[in-house]
What we know:
Layout: E1 2-7, E2 21-25, E3 30-33, H1 39-44, E4 55-57, H2 63-66, H3 69-78, E5 83-88, H4 92-102, E6 111-116, E7 121-124, E8 127-133, E9 141-145, E10 152-154, H5 162-168, E11 173-177, H6 192-199, E12 206-210, H7 220-228, E13 235-237, E14 243-245
Parallel strand pairs: 3-4, 4-5, 5-6, 10-11, 11-12, 12-13
Antiparallel strand pairs: 1-2, 1-14, 2-3, 7-8, 8-9, 9-10
Helix pairs in contact: 6-7
Amino acid sequence: MYLTFLGTGSAMALPDRAQTGLLLDDGDRRLLVDCGAGVLHRLAGTDAGYEGVSTVLLTHHHLDHVSDLLALLKARWLAGEDWLEVVGPRGTKALVDDLLSAFDYLDGRVDLRVREVGAHEFSVAGFDVSARETRHSVDGLAYRFAGAAGDLTISSDTEAFEGMAAFADGSAVLVHDCSFPDDVDVSNHPSPSTLGDALAGHDYGRVYLTHLYPHTEGRHDEMLDAVERRYDGDVRFARDGLRVEC
Length: 246
């Protein structure tokens, strides 16, 4: 299973970071996790392209995670693709319905299927997934994907806490929100120090930090130092276009 970081940014734009989007593929199956602004453009630069991605799994409904959703639907329609599945937490059906009410000319252009999931096990696009709740300003889910060579866990936007660290324990790859440096007073996202404290005592193959605000620019080294003073493991910053094997 391969993971491509399509977008590693946040709600505040950076020139080299699109908003949140991750592509999972194993040659036969493809899944897009979140679809923020710029993700459609990034997806067009992959081997799969937007034509090859027919399922989107949403972590939550903030704009920087869903803003390219209808753009993806329209691009697939214009490319001659005839269906799209959107899966996500409670409220996903209402979100999609509201978007289509604003852009009603897209309604019925493809066979659009919407499914809501919760903190349980399920399958999507052929991937076996476990989910748990996040700690954020809106309801959201973190996802753990079973892989032959090791599991992949995506935290979504969340505070760092023991329950999330335990949920991801043993993952070959953990993708975790680390939006701000330590000196920014913020809730609903972790600082490097709180993330390091939560991860301490757990085992992950690699940890990738993502959902990066402009406040993190030029401060990656000190952020890594803060995490690594508390967690003794392989921690790296994600970047748009990075492709890793899980």
